[in-house]
Structure formats: C-alpha cells, structure tokens
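Bug: token stream looks shifted between consecutive jobs. Job 1:
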Amino acid sequence: MSAAVELKRISKKFGDFYANKQVSLTVERGTVHAIVGENGAGKSTLMKILYGLYQPDEGEIYINGARASLSSPADAIRLGIGMVHQHFMLVRSLSVLENVILGSEPVRHLQIDFDAARRTLEALSSQFGLHVNPDAPVSSLSVGEEQRVEILKLLYRHAQILILDEPTAVLTPLEVEQLFSTLKSLSAQGKTVLVITHKLDEVLAFSDYVSVMRQGELVQTLPTAQTNKTMLARLMVGKDVLLSLPHVDTPPKDEVLQVQSLTYLDAKGVPHLQSLSFSICAGEIYGIAGVEGNGQSELLKTLWGMIDEGAQVSGTVLLSGISLLGKSPRAIAQLGVSHVPEDRLRYAVVPSYSIAENLIFGRHYEPNFSTRFALRFDALYTFCRDMIQAFDVRSAKGISPDERIENLSGGNQQKVVSARELSRPRLKLLILAQPTRGVDIGAIEFIHRKILDARKQGVAILLISAELDEIISLSDRIGCLYKGQIRYEFSREETLRLRQNPTEFEKKIGEYIT
C-alpha cells in the first residue's frame, strides 16, 4: 500500500493557542482511518487543514506522493479530497439530485443535462449502496438519508479521499450499520476514508487504523486490530477512564412525574404518541430506549411546553400533582424542570451569542444572574469560568467567556448546554435527550457523574438516548418506546439483574424497539 495522505510537522496557532502542534500523519490508500481524541484535541482543525479551510502555519502536505498547496476547499476538491461536515451543508428546498450536482452541473446545449446527472447519480448509488430517491426534496429525508446525499456529492465530484466529521452522531443503530457497510465498500474500491469520531466501539468495528490526538498533538497511530477501548481511552485522556460508572441501587421514593394516556396527533392528524403511560420517582432515572422517530421528539415537546402548532394533545402530565400541559417553557422551568434538548442548534443555543450568554440562556431571570433592571455581569462571568473549567470546554482558538459558541465544536457546545441545565438550582425533574451526543469520553464520564449526583440528591430524571449502553448503565427502569407506546418496561429488578450482562441486555431491548 502507498500513502494517500502525508501530513508532515503540521502546526496551526490561533493567537497564542496551538490547535495543532508538529503533527505528522500518514494515511494509507484504500483504508478507513479513524481520528480520535477529546473535544478540542485538534482533530477537526487538522482535517480542515487537509480540506483547505485552514492553512497551516508550518508543515507540509503530500497527496498521493506529491506536495500540495491547499489554499481553499476548491484546491482540495481538484485533488480529489471531499469532506462531510458534522452539520450537513444541504439546501433543504432542493431535491436530492439538485443538491448533488449543485456547483458541478453538467451542461448540454447551454442547459443543465439533468438526464446525464441522474444516470451518474443512480450509478453511484448502486455501486456504493447509497440508495436515495433523486427527486425527493431534502427536507423530507431522514438524517441518515441526508448523510448519504452528502457522500454522493463527494463521489459525484470524483473524490478519492473522503473526510467524515462525527458521521454517526445523529444516526439510528440501523443507519450506523448501513454507514459502516458503505465505508467498507468505499475502501474496498480504492477510496481512502478519514473519520473523526468519539465513539470507540465504532472505531473498533469499522476502521483499519486509528490515530489518537491529545491537546493538539498526535499521540500514536495503531492498526485497529492491535488496540482496544480501554487503551484508546487512556491515550485520549492521558489517564485511566471509567467506561462504566458503578450504579448503586436505591429504594424508590414518591412519584414526581406522572404521564398517563398521553396521545399526540400532529396537525395532519398523524399519531406520534398513543396512550403513552409511565411515571418517574424522586431519585430515579427512567430511561427510554427506542429508534429515533418513534415519538421521542413529541414527548419532549409536550413535557417542555413546545407543542407544534395545530397538534392535538390529550391525556395527563403531572409534576408533583401540577399539570404541565398548556404551560410555557419558562413556567415549566420555574416549577423545577430542566431540559437538555435533542437538537442543540435548534433549541439549546444561540450560535452568534457568547458562551457566557448561552450559559444563562433561559436562566437570565434567576436572582443569581440579574437584578430587577440589569444582568449581574460579575456573577455571570464567575459562573461561566467555573463551568468552562468543570466541564472542560475547549475551542480551537482558545477559550474565554466572550467566545462565540458557534466557534466551538459540536461536542463542546453540548458541554455548555449540559453545564447550564445540570447546574440549575432546586431541580425536581431533569429531562435529558441525547445528553452526551458528540461529547468525548472523558467528558461523558464527568456528565454521567453529574447525572448520578442529581439522582442521589432526589431529582427525578428522564433519560432519552440512542446509546443503549448509556441507557443500560444509568437507568433504574427502562421503557422501550415503539410507535409512540411503551412496548415493554424493564422493572428495577430486571434492570439490576440484566446490567451484569450488557450484551444480552442490548439484545433484549432490541427485541422491543424494532
């Protein structure tokens, strides 16, 4: 095998902060090469340099043995390099076909040759198993289908080196398996794939080589077959990491949340929740396992007072005897409810605002942060610095309370959201939707400890996660959600017993959610 990519002594500084420092990396042609590391370790910066979005302060780049100068993504594309970003770059009002050819339209007789483009797209879809309806508007696609469109865009432009940034962050388990199959197919046909990820189980499942970065430096590159999850975690963090925290069983207390016969019909009358019933006690974590799209979003909207316009909701939702239906998010928060939403960019952060502003988003009226007439900036900045340190928030450009949150990686944005919601005072109910999505393994351990601390303090916790190992390791009881109903509920006794064999537990849960 020969090298498709060689990065030699690459350094990149933002002010006095080294995002990358003397990084040398070789990627063999026709392999799947994973890049892992904590949030802020320099992974995305390094790949953005390879894609021409950033230029290195020093170092050399070689593509297929020839030295390359990448002053823009256009240069990278000409050299056969393509990148699928963590947040997709699609025009949602256009069709799949229009998105794929956008900027590279074939022309015949001074008009776009849609027939030729369609034939090329269908051939690529068949060759690499990336099936998607060419005429479907992107707005109608699932997240997994959108990702296929992004990959097809690169293949349509003859990319030989594909960079994927956190490609499985929002995929269902089935879509993850389909992506793995696609990556193997790409490498088998001579393409070179670089994947930035935090998910070590997936690294071990799909990659040929893995490189570990820490604090801007490349720590080690290994054949994946010669490593394991514990070793990779230690290399990433620089110390041993508890991959699963001890779970101490505690007796149930008074019910805090009661959901009874909850039904949710959207504006078109389509049911998303059907007579859904469950309850959560103080000091208990109730996990909801299920493939995304089975009513989780509608449940969250109902609990947080953000029901879609035209939707019809019936049933009962009580917090310590007080109905939550019809109340605003602020009124619900003032009752002692905190919420980490599933879509941070849509519901949890304002990208153009600073870290400090986002840390009090929805909390600005609390006496700690404001007087009757103005914000208490000293208290705000003290709180912000404490949260940045406690949750290890990092940025490629350094970190300060005034840093705009859009400059942070997705994982670091998630840390900010988690810090804000897990630190709310006088909590009764904590609603967590994908709380560690995109977060590095060291921060996952920290967030899990904070969740268990809240449980210990008597907070009732609803945990919705696509990560079954997260559901299994944290939950006291588990409800399996399928087509808007709890299909089966694992009791405290079953959960405690089955936790000793996580693989068997995952299989049992899988029977009820698919």
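Job 2, same session, no restart:
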Amino acid sequence: MQMSRISRVVTLLASLALVAPAAADEKKAPTSLPTGHLTTPDWLKASTEPLAAGEIDRLVDGALKEVGIKPAPLVNDEQFLRRVYLDLTGRLPVPADVSDFLKDSSTDKRARLVDRLLQSDEYAEHWASYWREVITSRTTDQRTQLFARSFEIWLQGEFKKNRNWGAMVREMLTATGPMRQDEPDKNGQAFFLGSRFGADATTERAAETARIFLGIQMQCAQCHDHPSDVWKREQFHELAAYFARVKERPIRDGMRLVGQQLVSLPIGEHSMPGKDDPKKTTAMTPRFLDGKEVNGLLTDANRRRSLAEVVTSKKDPWFAGAFVNRMWGHLMGQAFYQPVDDLGPQKEAMMPDVVARLAGSFRGTDYDIRQLLHAMLTSQTYQRQVRPGEAPEDHLLFAASNPTRLTSDALWNSLVGTLGALQQQTPFGGMAAAAAGPFGRFRSFEFLFKQEFAYDPSAKAEEVEGSVSQALLMMNNPLVNQRVQARGSNLLARILNSYTSDDEALRMVYLRALARRPTDHEVSRCKQYVRQVGDRAEAYEDILWALINSTEFQTRR
C-alpha cells in the first residue's frame, strides 16, 4: 500500500474511533479497597455448595456497595456475543450468528448460548491452546515446540470429555514414557514434565508445579529466603525432591530429534546447594509445602503419585484457588490476585470472600470446569461494560470489564474469519535456516504470526504491550494486504458483488470484522469516504484495512 494511501486510511481509522463505548457512569475512587489475606483455614471455611443463581453478583455488588462504587451497565447483545465467543472459542461469531442472536427474544438466550459454546469442539480447542501457552510461555528451550502439539491434542480430548481439573493435573504430574513427533496423538500428558530439559529440569518442574497448579511463586526460594515471603529454601528443594528420579531422554532418528522420553530412575536424590558454598550440598527428602514428608524409599512413580494426590487434594485449597483466580482474571481482564499465578497467605486478594466462595464451589463440584465457567459467564458481573481506570494498573474492582489484548490464537482466528485463509510457507536460507533448528527450512505464516503476537497468559493486562513489528505486520504484510483486496474470490469481493447498497455492504463488513453493525456515524463517515475515493472497491479495501487495524478488532472487550 502506498504511503499516501496509508496516510489517508489512518485518517479514516482515527475518524471512526473504532472502540466499543465505555460505560459513562461514575468512576470515583473508593475510600478503601475490599482487600484481605486468605490463609488455608480461611479458604476451607467457605461453602462447597454449588453456586446459586445470582450469587456471584450478590457477593460482588455487596463488596462494591461497601466502598461506594456503582457497577457499569450490562453490555448489549452484540457486545456480549463477541465477548463470549472470544472467551470460550477464541473465534468471532459469523454474521448469521449475530443476526440469529439479535432476533431471539427469549430471556435465557445468553445462558443457553454459554451452554452451547461450552459443548463445542471450538471450546476444547481454544482452552487447550490457552493451557499450552501457559505451560510453554516460560520455557527457554526451542525443542519444547516439537512436542507442544501432542500436549494440545491431549488437552482437547480432556476438555471435550469435561474431565475434571484434578484428574488432568494428576495425569500431568505422574506421566511417563515417550512423546514423538510422528505420533502426536499419544501421551501428550507427558509434556508438562517433558518440556523441561537439562540440569535445571528438576528445579524448573518444582517451580512450575507450584506456580501453575497452586498459584505459588517460590522460584526465588531456590537460592535464598526472602524476608517478605513465607517460603524457604528448604521447602523449595523438598518440593523439587519429588522429581529427583524422573529424567528426560531424547529419542533420535539418526541425528534428527524425533521425540522425548520420560524415564524413572531406580535411585537418586535431589541435592540442595549450600547457601554460602554451592559445592557443599544436602540430599533432600520429598516433603510437601504443608510439612508432610514422604518416605524417601518410594519409587519415582510413587513419589510423583503422592505429590499429585496432595496437590489436587480438597484439603489443600490453593489448587482450586489458583484455577479460579486464573479463570476469573482471563474472563474479567483482572483477577482477585494479581498477577494470576501469585497467590499465597502473605499476598493480598481483592474481595477475598468472593474468591474463597468460588474456589469452595469448585472443590465441591470435584473441579468441574464447565460448571465453574457457566457460573462465571452467566453472571451480570461478567456481562458489565468496559470502564477503563484512570491509569492502566488501576483495579476496577469487577465493577466493569477490563479490556485486554487478544491472545495470538484468537487474533489469528479473527483475522482468518474476517479475510479468509492466510496460508503461506516462509522460506529460510543460510543462517536463518540453521536458526530454524528442528523446525526445518519452512515455517507457516500462521506459526510466524502467532510467534509475533504471543505473550505470557499469566502476565497482568497492563504489562502486555504491542510492538512496532506487530503493527507493521497487521498494516503492511503483503499476504494480509492481498487478502484485504476486493478481487477474485476474496471475501470482500464477494460482499461487494452481493450487496450493491453501501448500507448493506457496510453492515456485512462490520459484522464480519467486528461482529456488530456499524453505528449511524460510522455508516455516514464510510459512505462519505467511498464518495471521496471515487473507487468503490478501493474504498472498501481501505475500510476493511482500518477495521482490522483498530483497537476494537485486536482487543477483547
């Protein structure tokens, strides 16, 4: 696209102000925040009965009333439809979905939509992708990508069956055997442990088990006691001792890496290096964070089985608390504990009674994921409009939804749903080919796109920032711009051929890109732009380009 045309389209983009309107009612800061600390007894005191209809809203609204904050209004049907589709499936609704939902006048249509999406294959695929990102985002070895597909396939099957979260984690912690590139549908549960390589694999497995499954960040305790943290060096290395006898072994076909094997060693203990002299080490006996020791003579399989049982035990509420906090943070844009993987008795929670109750109900349903998501997504709290804070780091107290960037998968799916298929193999030569390593000389545009837009799903929303390279990819990538053009079998060409009326054509372009109809202002401005350009096809290319480069398109609102 020529610079003069880009400048013209950027002006169009600015004039459209493409963001869903924020709630306009009061934003005053509370005189005090509804925060507090939760200990293990505090969590366990919460009811484990299923959440009653409206219970989440009564709890949240009660806390807001105490600090004098009025909740934002509810989103309209179009806004709800886009939000829940992206949250549950990582995809935009197609125009027919929008039309059908708007025509439905039943009072329970939002709840029924939630239930339908929770049963869909797209739900299983989206959340498998999410958890793959959670577990791979902090790996440092590129080889992990070789086996990530196996993990994702396994997760998809688990989510389709609505396997409870406790059972899934127990399988991850007790897995053994091979993962192979040529057998991606086998033993994907071994990925969590198998994605850690080398001399630090044991300590990384311990740190990630605590962080991801218990919401406890104790990796710093590997080297030293922190004065403001309850976790000590001995506790970290006692946790690591559970993994002392499981090792990873590469599977090769000649010189080519084709798999990874988890094997159990008959003997071996984890050693804690001395604080002052790392060469002086102390052999550690497996002991959980609650102080319960495991017989050091147990085999690797029995050690890890005992760890899996205690991690997922309903007597240890941090497991349920970590999952609930993470899900709530993903759906609301902010969590009770921030960041989502940093809970603990010394950490401060927003609305501690609410998160404790949600976690209690999750324990009571034996960690039923769909039941938890249904309760969250059908609450009015989830369905509040966006209301940005005065500063990005301000906590909205769940009085409104906090806008967040789409995950790389969701953004890719939105782009493909708007423009059509985007497939291209990008060749690597010379040094770049060597850098490609086990992936060979070709990577798909999809792979490169998702790499560019990937971010750690455990990060706080305000820490996830865009980059110049991301903007350039969306604005000036030849493949994207090719699909924006109104020619041949491109989606835009089909729309323009089918709808000679600009009002109807604009409605379809907006429904496809933003899952909503254009406002009167947007229709007027776009029709004025079509007249200004004088070439209908070129003008609509510019409009579509503006839409996919808008904040609204690239964020979950």
